[in-house]
Amino acid sequence: MRKPEVGSSATHQVKKMKKGLWSPEEDSRLMQYMISSGQGCWSDVAKNAGLQRCGKSCRLRWINYLRPDLKRGAFSPQEEELIIRFHSILGNRWSQIAARLPGRTDNEIKNFWNSTIKKRLKKMSDTSNLVNNSSSSPDTSDLSNNTTSSLELKDIIGSFMSLQEQGFINPSFTNTPITNNNPFPAPHMISHPCIDDFTPYVDGLYGVNTGLQGELYFPPLECQEGDWYKADINSHVAEMKTNGAGNVPAESMRVEEYWDLDQLMSTEVPSFHFNFKQST
DNA sequence: AACGGAGCCAACCGCCACCTG
DNA sequence: TCAGGTGGCGGTTGGCTCCGT
User: Fold this and answer.
1) Of A190, A242, A184, which is closest to residue A211 (Cα–Cα)?
2) What is the value of pTM for the model shown?
3) CATH for A15-66 (3.40.50.2300, 3.40.1000.20, 1.10.10.60, 3.40.1010.10)
4) Residue A84 pLDDT > 70, yes or no?
């Protein structure tokens, strides 16, 4: 525990910390301090740089805005595709996604996802509703800017509904139950509490295996980048069925087959080409 | 020109894990 | 062992900007 500062008191601690947007002067102070002194305890950084900010605020400002290695500007199509792929595997683990996108921050990626990509997924959902109301093929041209022609919505819908029937979709991930009128959660929303262990379907396609047959899994988070991973779904699914989804710790996984995350990410797959297996 | 809605994004909030005295 | 400080993270919010009417 850090010792309380000499002369500190309740009244001192209540001393008003500034909130809100950072002024150019504050940025300059923080930047200069970080360059000259480097990162230490953030509350000390705030104090020593003469900022009326809490340490947390300084840390956030530095990480998200002032850091010299930050990449500015819009996301490239390549970055965009990577984000989508990583998110399908990692879910909302923004910091882990950011760690794989040099120069990008978790906040940036989170904002990008919540504004741009979520909007697309909603469009996809709307499109799928159209599919259910007519037999004509949907226009999926907006799903991705390069490869979207092979989306098989009916298969996806069927698979999602099948998943739901089996209890493998956590209602907390979908605002409403999956029905013919609302059949289409985003792929990552299938992520019931076992999302860590669900993996994209990588043998040339991209999606989620809803057959739950045991061959597909995502490596545990504690694995290091470049490691080989392995896991087996069978025992896990059996446990899920016994205990109910949500009660199975990830540690219950049995290891059987390895995946390489980097290889997985670099796999040449057509974006948004889903090929779901039907449950048996 | 004024207004309102939508979208974007910087920053805050609350929680949690870890550390240290 | 415990209490309190700190850092890290994901979710959320509020304000600014843009755009259509």
Assistant:
1) A190
2) 0.56
3) 1.10.10.60
4) yes
